[in-house]
Each structure stands twice: as C-alpha cells, then as structure tokens.
Amino acid sequence: MKKITITKSAGFCFGVLRALRLAQQTAKSRKNIYMLGDIVHNPRVVSDIKKIGIKKITKLKTQGNGVLLIRAHGAQKSVYDQAKKLGYKIIDATCPMVKEIHSIAKRYEEQNYTIIIIGDKKHDEVIGIKGNLKNKPIVLSNKKEIKRLQLSHIKKAAVVVQSTQNQEKVKDIVAELKKQIKKLIFRNTICQPTRLKQKEIQQLPSTQDIMIIIGAKSSANTKRLYELSKKINPNTYWVNSKSEIKKCWFKDKIKVGIGAGASTPDYIIKEIESFIKNRV
After folding, report:
1. Closest CA to 221 of 174, 258, 166
2. Catalytic: which of 110, 125, 200, 273?
3. What does each C-alpha distance from 257 to 56, 123, 206, 270 come to in angstroms?
4. Per-residue pLDDT for 62 more than 90?
5. What is 14-95's CATH number, 3.30.110.30, 3.40.50.11270, 3.40.1010.10, 3.40.309.10?
C-alpha cells in the first residue's frame, strides 16, 4: 500500500481561482467573450473555459462588439487602450498580486529609476509588466546576463520580480546587481502562494521515496517546483495527467509525495492520487 502525502498548497492559487470565477460568471451573463491567449497555463483548464463559450483569439477584431477577458497573467497597457477604442467591455481577471507589481514598477519609473524585472522574458506576466511602463525595462532571466549587459552605468534602479520566480535564484541575481549598481531598491514581488509552494517542496522530497509534481509543461511555476524537488530527490517526475505516469517508477517505493503548480485543478490531482493508490 502506497502512503501518499500531498502538499497543503498543491493546486490553484488565489489569483487563478479568481480568474476562473470571473470567467464563469461572465459566461453566464454575456455572449461574445474573448481572450488573447489562454486564461492560465493548463490545457485541461483551457478546454474547460472553451466549453463555457469563451473564445481564444490572437488579435482584437477591428470592431469590438463583445467582452475582452484579461487573463490572470495580466496584459500590456496597449491591449486595454486598443480594446476600449474598439468598443470591447473589459473584464479584468489579472491576479491582484500581478497588478501590484505593475503599480510598484510604475511608481519607481515615475521617480526616474531604471526598472529591472527578474523573470522569464517570454512569459505573459513579464510581457504585461513591461507593457505597463513608459520606458523599456531591463529583463534578467539569470545571473550571467548581468555581466554581459554591463549595468554599472546605471545610477539608480528598482528591481521587481515575476511573481512565480525561484526565491534562491532571485537572491543570487540581486546580490550580483548590488555589485554593479550603487543605488538599488529591491522589491521582492514573488507572491505568497509561490513562496509557500516552494517552501513545502523544499521540505517534503527528503522524506519521500518518490515525488510527483503535477502541472502543464507550459507552467513556469510548476517547472520551478519540479526543479527544486529534483535537486533534493532524484526520483522526481513531472506529469500533467495520469496517462503520463509509468508504473515502473514506483517499484519498491512506498512513500509518495505530490506537489502541484498554481494552475493545476483539484480534479487532476485527485485523478492522479487515485491512480497511484489503485493502479501502481
């Protein structure tokens, strides 16, 4: 019999839950609802949203006669401006914690600080943060980029962080920045749900025979949970459905730890838990 331990924070965070509730409420009362991309990074959730009639589009139509749902990751100011100009009603499902990052970055920019964003350059959240600033910020994904960019000419800078970044990695980057920039303000905008998930994943793997991290391969926060767990417990596997699980992983393994990213629905976690209990 397998002994399964699931982290308390596994699954949807507050921001994702809020975005999905707004989507569901809007779908009940409105028609012609559109999104520029996926509401969150999980194919099953995206499929659920499609079923309730919300359409994914790649660009705004020339004449908006419907609703534009802004996703949990947020959007650039230009998206809001264009949508209003074209006549869309905007329902803003941006995570409030991401909105706070926008506000912090804008506030320091107004005080003539160079804005530095620590995050994944192509991630929707980072694109949204960048797109709410007047000037082009510096985006850093790792410590090596600091030396390549030669930032010592910057007189003063303010640093914000993509909400789902790895805390240890961020500390390393900030320490390197402090060597080059004399006046550096660091605002650690990693959100509380991410901090809690990472803390749990730093504690659980060492007590387990095997770790299963659940979430889509497109999910940045799930990737970081996997990386943290893998460092501690080499028997760590990343899956998004029970069909990806291999029974051979569990040979001679009794204690099974499970963690899940912020865009992973409870029903997927329960499906995988049940599969492990009854099938491996």
Report:
1. 166
2. 125
3. 35, 28, 10, 13
4. no
5. 3.40.50.11270
Q: How much is the average pLDDT of 104-122?
A: 97
| Active-site residue flag, 125 | yes
Determine the Cα–Cα distance for residues 122 and 129; give it in Å rounded to an integer. 12
Asked whether the beta carbons of 13 and 262 are under 8 A apart, the reply is yes
pLDDT value for 152: 86
**Assigned CATH class of 3-12+193-279:** alpha beta
| 131-175: pLDDT as tens digits | 999 999 999 999 999 988 889 899 999 999 999 999 999 999 999
End-to-end CA distance of the chain: 9
CA distances from 153 to 139, 177, 180, 201 (A): 16, 12, 8, 39
pLDDT at 135: 97
Cα–Cα distance for residue pair 105/118, rounded to 1 Å: 12
> Which fold, 97-190?
Cobalt-precorrin-4 Transmethylase; domain 1 (3.40.1010)
Q: Which two tokens stand for residue 195?
A: 């901090």
Residue 259, SS3 per DSSP? strand
Instruction: Extract the tokens encoding 187.
Output: 């605002």
Q: At CA 124, angle to CA 80 and CA 158, rounded to 5? A: 90
User: pLDDT for 206-265, tens place per residue?
Assistant: 999 999 999 999 998 999 999 999 999 999 999 999 999 999 999 999 999 999 999 999
Q: Where are the beta strands (DSSP E) in the chain?
A: 3-6, 33-36, 54-57, 67-70, 89-92, 114-118, 138-140, 156-161, 183-186, 210-214, 236-239, 255-260
